[in-house]
Amino acid sequence: MFNLFGIDGIQWIRRPIGSRYAPQYQCPTVKHGGGFVMVWGCFSDTSMGPLKRIVETMDRKVYEDILENTMRPWARENLGRSWMFQQDNDPKHTSGHVANWFRCRRVNLLEWPSQSPDFNPIEHIWEELERRLKGVRTSNANQKFAQLEAAWKSIPMMVVQTLLDSMSRRCQADIDAKGYPTKY
Questions:
Q1: Less Cβ around it within 10 Å: N or C end of the chain?
Q2: Is residue 135 included in any domain, yes or no?
Q3: Residue ranges making up the domain that contains 139
Q4: Where does the Tc1-like transposase DDE domain start and stop, copy by copy (predicted)?
Q5: Which pTM value belongs to this model?
Q6: What is the residue-level pLDDT of the chain in tens, covering all 184 positions?
């Protein structure tokens, strides 16, 4: 999820003592919530996959539709026969219907412990996308999605490869920590 205006959560500001109300140390707020654009994306070691805009509430049905009509065609065209899919343990990703979708289509899933910290490499790609658009203004959701899509396509494969190269270390760190937090 990418906000049209502002940030999620708390924003910390450093300022000199006695300058609490100085305008240069104030953060503008959006009273109406600001809006957001939700997206789904995937990538491999050879290319960035599609970035799909999600306009409805993301549930297992929407997720299955993305898998069938976005991920699967891209994977067939770009990945050949031997590949593995990684996802987090969000309930909509692990529902019986979705598990059945993967089974019926013979898509190999990377097993992921249910209480494991989320160090899925795509989280780093989302951060990269956020950094690339930091400070870029937008006036509506369509414009924001266009910006996201352009930034997504411009992420260098070197960034992706570095993340993928770290997967064995990430998995081993999780095993060593027995599911407790790791540096990832």
A1: N
A2: yes
A3: 2-176
A4: 53-137
A5: 0.77
A6: 777 665 555 667 788 898 888 888 776 665 555 677 999 999 999 999 999 999 999 999 999 999 999 999 999 999 988 899 988 888 888 899 999 999 999 999 988 766 665 677 888 899 999 999 887 888 788 999 999 999 999 999 999 999 889 888 888 888 888 877 777 7
The token duo for 23 is 């305008």
Is 93 contained in some domain? yes
Q: Is residue 182 part of a domain?
A: no
CATH number for the domain including 32? 3.30.420.10
- Residue 19's SS3 state is coil
SS3 letters across the chain: CEECCCCCCCCCCCCCCCCCCCHHHCCCCCCCCCCEEEEEEEECCCCEEEEEEECCCCCHHHHHHHHHHHHHHHHHHHCCCCCEECCCCCHHHHCHHHHHHHHHCCCEECCCCCCCCCCCHHHHHHHHHHHHCCCCCCCCHHHHHHHHHHHHHCCCHHHHHHHHHCHHHHHHHHHHCCCCCCCC
As for how many domains the chain has, the answer is 1
